[in-house]
Design a protein that fits this description.
Layout (H helix, E strand, L loop, with lengths): L3 E4 L6 E2 L1 H14 L7 H7 L4 H12 L7 H15 L5 E2 L3 H10 L3 E9 H12 L6 E5 L10 H10 L6 E5 L2 H9 L3 E5 L6 H5 L5 E3 L3 H7 L5
Parallel strand pairs: 1-4, 1-6, 4-5, 6-7, 7-8
Antiparallel strand pairs: 2-3
Helix pairs in contact: 1-4, 3-4
């Protein structure tokens, strides 16, 4: 029986690509570099903002990362201003979350996005207190794909990994769910393609949120 669902944020619950692209390009502009297109940003994100900035700088020509530390500071300053830029939930996500809550299933967010920005995104779109737990990147918890974040949420919920569905859209997420021994669900509406998800052999790969209530939950009843 499934008692809780843990969701990645970017590319899973919310389409944040415009905000990530806009902030990254504002950062690069401060150091004289041109913009990066959204398709490359999709490949740069998922492993925390430090890796995102590193990849963007190297792609733009700063192969020695001469501006890395300055760019990290600039990105965090700019992201605090623009992290909600054009942010919206993916089609079917609000309905899925309502269905889960109606069934008494606990819901949580686990993101490699900095914690304050994770909370800001979730509360702006869904409202304060909508999710049972919202957890972004913090210094005292290893980033995904380390399972520590999932394990901490499971402990707070009083659930086992066998009672959990973990949702994500990248290879990092697939590794996270598998490392935590949760039932891992890859979603194809996010930042990466089906082939990347299937390479890690998650329990499920889905093309629409409604497949959770129509197919996945039924398989555990």
């Amino acid at each position: 029986m499934i008692r809780c669902c843990i969701f990645d944020l970017d590319g899973t619950l919310l389409n944040t690509l415009d905000a990530l692209t806009y902030t990254t390009n504002l950062t690069l502009k401060e150091f004289g570099y041109g913009p990066v297109d959204p398709e490359h940003i999709k490949q740069f994100v998922g492993d925390g903002y430090r890796m995102q900035v590193k990849r963007a700088l190297q792609y733009s020509g700063d192969r020695e990362l001469l501006h890395y530390e300055e760019a990290l500071s600039a990105y965090m300053r700019l992201f605090a201003e623009h992290c909600l830029y054009h942010v919206r939930p993916y089609e079917g996500i609000p309905e899925l979350l309502e269905a889960l809550k109606a069934q008494g299933i606990r819901i949580a967010v686990l993101s490699n996005k900095p914690h304050a920005r994770t909370v800001e995104n979730i509360e702006a779109v869904f409202g304060k207190g909508y999710f049972d737990i919202v957890a972004g990147q913090k210094d005292d918890v290893p980033k995904k794909p380390d399972p520590a974040g999932v394990n901490r949420i499971l402990e707070q919920f009083g659930c086992s990994s066998e009672e959990c569905l973990y949702f994500g859209d990248t290879n990092t997420d697939m590794q996270t769910g598998l490392n935590a021994k949760a039932h891992t669900v890859g979603v194809t509406w996010g930042f990466r393609d089906r082939a990347e998800l299937e390479a890690f052999h998650p329990d499920f790969v889905i093309d629409a949120p409604k497949m959770v209530t129509e197919h996945i939950l039924a398989s555990f009843s």
